[in-house]
Write a structure and sequence with these properties.
This protein is mostly helical. The chain has a domain of 99 residues: Alpha Horseshoe (Serine Threonine Protein Phosphatase 5, Tetratricopeptide repeat), CATH 1.25.40. The protein is 79% helix and 0% strand. The protein contains eleven helices and no strands. α2 packs antiparallel against α3. The longest helix is centred in the last third of the chain and has 23 residues. The termini are far apart. The relative contact order is 0.07. The model has no long low-confidence stretch (mean pLDDT 93).
Length: 199
């Protein structure tokens, strides 16, 4: 039933997806994947309170990806210490070979550390995420966008390369990446103007 719900979700039939996820949970209240999928659906519906509840239940069921989603929502809610704690727990249980979840956990942990002002830690986690992303067919922008922000705090001369990567790979349909795309465009335009004025 959970799989049918996932198919409905992918097809954009969210009402049927919700019904199937809820049916799966009525058959097995401990189904961590159904809780996780229902959390994603609630998040897409902008019902973040219900999404948090479902992600928490999925995390309690040992689903590593749920720790990532919880951590990301806490970052967006400016609860950086809670986010970091959850993301570290997720890293402890992430499955070997699950590069996507490992990347997301490292990237979000880097983001939490950036927001905490712990730039050395942020850089470490983001560089680890970038190493993991090298196994992907498509390069995600997020770790580069975040690393650019870290480098601006630590070593501003080294930020431009990461801003260029951010700009080149950002998916503007993703709200976070759209924000970072705007930042990257502004930084690169400012750099271009300062280069022209020194000529």
């Amino acid at each position: 039933v959970n799989e049918r719900g996932l198919e409905n979700y992918i097809e954009g039939d969210w009402s049927s997806a919700q019904s199937n996820y809820e049916r799966a949970l009525s058959l097995n209240p401990d189904n961590a994947e159904a809780h996780y999928n229902l959390g994603r659906l609630y998040e897409d519906l902008q019902d973040f309170k219900k999404a948090l509840t479902q992600y928490r239940l999925a995390a309690q069921g040992g689903l590593d990806a749920a720790y990532n989603e919880l951590g990301r929502l806490y970052i967006q809610d400016k609860k950086y210490y809670q986010a970091a704690s959850l993301l570290l727990q997720g890293l402890e249980i992430v499955q070997k070979g699950d590069a996507e979840t490992q990347y997301a956990l490292l990237k979000n942990l880097g983001w939490a550390r950036l927001e905490q002002g712990r730039y050395a830690d942020a850089e470490t986690y983001l560089r680890e995420a970038i190493e993991v992303e090298k196994t992907f067919e498509q390069t995600p922008a997020a770790a580069h966008c975040l690393l650019a922000q870290v480098m601006e705090k630590k070593a501003p001369d080294n930020a431009l390369k990461e801003w260029e990567m951010c700009l080149g790979y950002a998916d503007v349909r993703n709200p976070d990446e759209d924000t970072w795309f705007g930042m990257a465009r502004k930084r690169i335009d400012a750099q271009d103007k300062s280069s022209e004025s020194t000529k």
